[in-house]
Structures are given as structure tokens and as C-alpha cells.
Amino acid sequence: MKKKYFINANIIDPYNSLNETGGLIIDENGKIEGVGKKVNTNNIPSREKVIDLKGKHIFPGLVDMRVFVGEPGFEYKENFRTLSEAALSGGVTSVVTMPNTNPVIDNVSIVDFLRRRGRDKSKINIFPTAALTVNTEGENMTEFGLLQGKGIIGFTDGIKTIQNPRIMNRIMNSASDLNSLIIQHAEDAELSKDGMINDGIIATKLGLQGIPVSAELLILERDLTLLEYNNCRYHISQISSASSVEIIRERKKKVNFSCGVSINNLSLNENDIGDFKTFLKLSPPLRTEDDRNALVQGLVDETIDVIVSDHKPEDEENKRLTFAQAETGASGIETLLPLSLELYHNGSVNLETIIKALTSSPAKILKINKGNLSIGNDADFCIVDINKPWVVRKEKLISKSKNTPIEDKKLQGKVMNTFVNGEELFKAE
Amino acid sequence: MAIKSKKAIKISQKHLLGIQDLSVNDVNIILNEASKFIELNKSKNKKLDILKGKTQINLFFEPSTRTQSSFELAGKRLGADVMSMNITNSAIKKGETLIDTAMTLNAMHPDIIVIRHQDSGACNLLSQKVNCAVLNAGDGRREHPTQALLDALTIINRRKKIEGLKIAICGDILHSRVARSNIYLLNMLGAEVNIVAPTNLMPNEIERFGVNIFSDMKKGVKDCDIVMMLRLQNERMTSSFLSSNREYYEYYGLTPDKIKFAKEDALIMHPGPMNRGIEIDTNLADDINKSVIKEQVELGVAVRMACLKIFCE
């Protein structure tokens, strides 16, 4: 590989507290050789080809902590190849995959398969999670230790919540012994039973069963109470309400844990469901504008650590149904960064905070050396024109499934190039 | 008839999916048209040829006696060719989606489809996929527009107007499409609406519809001109919405001691089918001085004839 030189970029690397105009040098092995303002035409040999980025931004490759891939079992929705193409177009170079496949990722032999597929078909870094409990049934915990040994990065039942407090308590004990990361989707199954959208005026108007905020709060309060007695690495996958932000803000003063939010809950609210748009049937559900504002505030003061895409590809057949019958989830990995930039453009959150929540914060929770531009690291990064306007078109999406919740939305900010190990794997048209 | 309307202009909607989509003008057009059919339906020769040559398909995914027969009769009286399909889950079990069913029917070139479905929004989905007009005969717990229209016509028939009336809607509001459609329509026509239900059967934030909410029935029906009762479905007892039929009857059943709180000449309405002794005292239900329940059924045919005629055009 030839060395690559970029100059005149606005570089933001929260891990290294870097926010300056400068350049980036990639060495022959695809590692970062130099970064920052000291990289400029004066110290690059004149015979070398230099790419002038003219003020475009360089961010570390994004780390997306919540992604569903259809392999194995649902390859028609998304496979590792289509997922990685979609991710690259959104500047995402590392993803944490959910175990809700068929079969479920809950034992060592299936992890081997997953690792092979991930390695052979994917161009990005795949960090698979395994289920917390066998077949995500919430009863018997999986072999955290052995699975970690095979490269599992964390444990979650993905779309499901551990409902039984006794089992949750034991899971925390084991996770503490084995230093495992537990990722909880916080929703009480009984309170949210048959629920489809936020329990409020829209649910009443559309005649749809609601999911009350209390379904989320109950699990948060329960888990964070248990956590006081068995401190393990614990992460709340996503929260959706103002009250959740409040609970987390308070509890963080007492115990160590981390928390995520979906870009959907940061950008949309229950009104966007409009006339039964099934692409906006999400879990956790979109809630009120006040909830959305509180989540944005939680991101600003870092009560919320990470933003995830909650990328859940669903084919047309599973969405062209009545709201009650339609599958839950939206495709989102391609629009994660541009949609996050909306929070910067409208003055809600500063750019560095957003990038941190998309790069170094998830990497820190996962304990992986990704999401930064440190010298000697793999050159995973993206070049972004943060002002470039574009419109989300379903037919232009790269993901195999086209269930975007923001079709026809005007966005500002586009990923121009994405590099993994110093190699350019995506270039915008 | 005291339904005032400016010279009826055209209806603003292609489909009748819910009262929410209608304007006051739309409602007046329908009610005006319906009132013309009331006399016809009492006469000896009830057959017209307004919809001669038109095809009406009744697509019922949920069992229904009165609404389905009312629509069927309405279509036949207007001279349409009426076909009723009772799907009640069988096609879904065979794996056919609503959209597939819609496409199949659409290929038969119907002029109007009447649909009832257990899922809220099903009629909206159908209307996006077919070329003809779609009439909602009840979708999940969202809307049942012809029921609200026939209720309005019944009230107007008795009280000349709806504006200024105080109307209580009582019972299982949470699961009721009839309640939702009635709230929209009665509000639109200027009534004051009280909603009476135990909190377990009260939808969240319903007060934002512009209604007064009560969990005490006596307070809720106080000084009302109309008391509208809703059907209580039996399965509500098994899932802890309520404790028992007898306790429900004690607190939320319409009984002689509770109707006393309403105006002396208050009318009693019920969309049917009734659970006598659960939500309504059997004698009250049959009280010819108070109960207009049979009249509701009668005017239902007229309202559906009006809707078929207007939306077929």
C-alpha cells in the first residue's frame, strides 16, 4: 500500500482531544503515522501526492453499538456483505451485532460460524454479541467466559429484556466474575404487552395499544438497584423518555454504568408516525417532543454516552402490513452520522460531543481500540462534508432492506470517503 | 329536518376512513342525504336504482351482524350488486396479507369496498392500494364513522340539533372505536362531551380530545341530554381491567338510580349488541320514552345508504 497524505482537514478525534485543522498520514501498512496541525505541506516530501481536503472533516470511523444483521437465518433482510457496504457509506467502520438471529447466537459453535462469515464477507470490523440467556428466553444464562474466549464482545438479549430479577441478579454476579459486558434492552414485558407506540395522545388517536414510559423506568430502576450490590460492566442499550434521562443522571452519581440512545429517538417523535407509518414502529417507541428534547439534553451533559443507529433491516413484506402486524425496527446505519449532524446544525449539540458519542465513547465501553486516530492505530476513518445537503431516497439506500424512517428527509452532511485499515472502501458518487 | 347546510358542495374525501378526516360540511352533506332516505325506508317500495350497475364488496375480517347487514341492505336498496366476504382470519391464516387481498379484489373492479378489520388503520392501508372508494365499517379501536353518523342523525331526529347538548359516553372507552368516532363528531357539531369510564378503560390523554373525563358515573351523566352506553366485552373481566360483572354494573351500569342524575328527558343510546344487566338495566333499554336504541338501527341503514351514494359518485 502506498502512503497517503491528507491536508487541510478539520480533524475531530475526541479520544485524543483533537479538534483542529491539519492533516493525516497513513503509512504503508494502513496505520496512522501522523495526525493534526503539524501535518502540512511543509513537512510532507514534495514528491508525494497530497490530497487537499479543503476544509472537509475527518472523523474516526464510527462505532455503532446496536446493529442487526440477518445472518444467519434472515439473509434476505441483510447479510454481512450488504451490511458492511451500507455501514461504509455512513462512515461506520465498526459494528456491534445483535444475537437475534436464527439460530440465536448463544453458543460457541455458532460463534465460530459467525466469525468466519464476518471475516470473509465483511469489510468492516464486526464485534458480535451473544445472547445473555439461551435462545434469549430469559431463563438460563449463556457461557459468558467461553463465548468471550471466542471473541464475543458483550452479552444482550437484543430485542428482549431479562424480565426475571433473580436471573438478572445472577447474570450480574457472573458478569462481575468474568468481567463481561452486559447490555440491557430496558422494557418490562408485562407493561408493554401488545404495545406498539408511545402510550399517549397519538396511541389514543390511532387506536393502537400504547407502551407506557413506566415499562422502561421499571427495568432501569430495578437493574440500577441490583447494580449497586454487584457492580459489573453494565450498559443500557437505549432509553426513550425524559424520566429515564433523569433516573440515569441521578444513578450515575452512585454507580458506574453507561447508556445509549437511538438516533431515531433523538431526531423523531411520536407525531412522525402520522398515518400509520409502519417504518416508525420502533422499540423503544418514539415518544413526545419533550422526551426528545430531554434526550438531546442528556447527550449534551453526557448523561447519555453513545448514539446508536439501532439498524434493524426489515423487508417490505414485513412492513407492508397493518401497524399491529408489521415488524418493529428501522434501517439506519447509512444515515446515522448525517442525522446526528442535524443536532449540530440546529445548534442542539456541539460537534465534538456528537462525534464522541459515535466513536470513542462506545469504544471505551466495549474496551476496543477503535474510534480514535491515535498514532500507530488502524487507519479507520471517514471524510465528511458536514454541510453538503442531500435527500434520503429509499431506492438509493445500499442496505438490502429499505425501511428507512426518514424517507425524503433533507439532510445536511454527507460521508464522502470511508477508509478501513488505510484502504478507501467507500467513495461518494 | 333541521340540518342546515349551504347548497351541498362536493364531499372533500375520496374515502370514508374516519370522522377525523371530515369537515362540518362533509358531515352535513351525509346527514342531509341520509335524512332523505328515512322515509323511503319506511315505505312499501324501498328499491332505488341510484347505484344500478355498481359493485359493492363488503370485506369483513371481524364478525359483525348489524353493521354488515345494514351495509348489505343499504347497498341493495340503492340497486348495487352487493357481495359480502367474511374473511374472519381464514385468509390471514392462509398467509394472504391485507394488501394481497386488496389487490385481488381490486382486479374485480369494485366501485366501493366496505371494510371491517380488527387492526386499527387497516382501512387506511387498503385505501392506498385500491382504485375505488373505501368505507370504514370499523377498524380496531380507531374509528367507526358510520356508527357516529347514525348516532348523530338519531340525536338530530329527536332534538333537532346537536349544538349545545351535553352528552355522556360511558363504558369501555379504551377499546371502543364507536367512542372515538363519536367524540370527534359530537365535538365538531358543538356538543359538550363527557366521558365516563373506570381508569383502566380510559385511554391515555383522552382529555386532549376536548372532553371532560369522569370515573364517577353519577357526576359524569349529571344534567346530560343524552347518555350513550358502550358494549363491555366479556374478555375485559379476565385480564384484570375489572373485577366482576356485578361490580361493573353497580358502578358503571346504566340503572334507574343513575339515569336520575341526567336531565329528566334524557335519551339513552347504545350501539349494540347490548349486555343487559352488565352495562344497562334491561327495563331502561326497552323504555320507549327514553331508549332510542331501535331507532339507531333503523337510521343506520339510511346513513349507510347516504354514504354509499356519496362516496360512489
User: What would you call the shape of chain A?
Assistant: globular
Name of the CATH architecture of the largest domain in chain A: Alpha-Beta Barrel
Most strands sheet of chain A: 8 strands, mixed
Low-confidence segments of chain A, given as residue ranges, are none
Radius of gyration of chain B: 19 Å
Instruction: Please identify the top-level CATH class of the largest domain in chain A.
Output: Alpha Beta
User: What is the CATH topology of the largest domain in chain A?
Assistant: TIM Barrel
Largest sheet of chain B: 5 strands, parallel
According to CATH, the homologous superfamily of the largest domain in chain A is Metal-dependent hydrolases
> Major sheet of chain B: order of its strands?
7-6-5-8-9
| Cα distance spanning the termini of chain A | 24 Å
Strand content of chain B: 5-15%
- Give the helix proportion of chain B (percent range): 25-40%
Number of domains of chain B: 2
CATH architecture of the largest domain in chain B: 3-Layer(aba) Sandwich
Describe the structure.
The complex is a heterodimer of chains A (429) and B (313). Chain A has 429 residues and is of the alpha/beta class. Chain A has helices spanning 80-89, 108-121, 144-149, 165-178, 201-206, 214-229, 242-251, 263-267, 289-300, 336-345, 351-358, 360-366; strands spanning 4-13, 18-26, 32-36, 50-52, 57-60, 62-67, 92-97, 125-130, 154-155, 181-184, 197-198, 210-211, 233-236, 258-262, 306-308, 381-391, 410-420, 423-427. Chain A contains 12 helices and 18 strands. In chain A, α1 (80-89) links the parallel β6 (62-67) and β7 (92-97). In chain A, α4 crosses α6 (214-229), α6 runs parallel beside α7 (242-251) and α7 runs parallel beside α9. The model of chain A has no long low-confidence stretch (mean pLDDT 96). A 5-stranded parallel sheet of chain B has the order 7-6-5-8-9. A 4-stranded parallel sheet of chain B has the order 2-1-3-4. The longest helix of chain B has 20 residues, at 293-312. In chain B, α1 packs across α6, α1 packs across α12 and α2 packs across α12 (293-312). Chain B contains 12 helices and 9 strands. Mean pLDDT of chain B is 92; it is low at 1-6. Chain B folds into 2 domains: 19-144 and 298-312, Aspartate/ornithine carbamoyltransferase (Rossmann fold), CATH 3.40.50.1370; 145-292, 3-Layer(aba) Sandwich (Rossmann fold), CATH 3.40.50.1370. The A-B interface holds A 199-201, 203-208, 210, 212, 275-276, 317, 320-325 and B 20, 97-99, 117-122, 124-125, 139-143, 177, 180, 203-206, 208-209.
